[in-house]
Amino acid sequence: MHTLVEQLGWVSERFNLIRDPQNALWVLIIFNIWKNFPFSYLMILSRLQAIDANLYEAAEIDGANGWQKFRHITVPELWFVVGALMLLRFIWNFNKFEEVFLLTGTNIKTLPIYTYFKAFIGTMELGDASSLAVIQFVSFWESSSST
Amino acid sequence: MVTRKTIFHKIGFVLLILLILGFALFPFVQMLSTSLKYQWDWGNPSLIPTQINTEAYKELLGIGQSLKNVPQSIIDLLEESPELTREQRQAIIARYQDTGDVFPFLKYFGNSILLSSVAAFISLMLAIFGAYSFAGRITGDGR
Q1: Could you report the predicted ipTM of this complex, rounded to two decimals?
Q2: Whole-structure pTM over 0.90, yes or no?
Q3: Is B123 at the interface with chain A, CB within 8 A?
């Protein structure tokens, strides 16, 4: 990657992408997308393939054009899968610890990282760590019950 | 007709559900219990704290000022001095607090939200386009 960027002449010297917290966050986002894309892909693909072909035939008989079939059949059929995936992906990413910690160490300050440090590093403030975990839990409980 | 066997089955089923529920919820109860305990109470195996401590929540959410590092004599003095204004109290408490101890909750929360929402959204968009093309649906007829 470095060699490629150097040969393209974009940078004059090598640099550590994950040293700067701002860069590290975007590196982590790209890594996360790459790692978790297949699951969403498979779920959506399976839903698309399971849509009843009769619905499209009925729409054609009724004179629906391509856009109308997409808008009134494909999108509603996909809607709940996409919604569930978005919610699950958000929750899983929010609670993600190991990827963030192993890839960037302490450069990215997210809540699970802070909880870990409070609980197991230094003075081991279990009370602070537990209260942070409770706040995360309650915020998710609230967001999931409101959606 | 409700037989004795049916009643035992129902009771057994409810007990099983309660057992599984208790097993699943125990970590959360333990977490809540620890968050409300004082440091000297952590060794106490009971789930009910000896004395309720909400300082950690106040500190994390920035509600009021944490009295964590303030000596007890100063706290007593503040309580016995109703003539002090709120600003004066805050100024006295701030003397005993290390600014490095203040937890920037919103910054951490914002980073977590940014990471989870952007990654989820882009990943899902790529998945939708990829799956749509792979399903052989780019035929122009809306399938």
Answers
A1: 0.84
A2: no
A3: yes
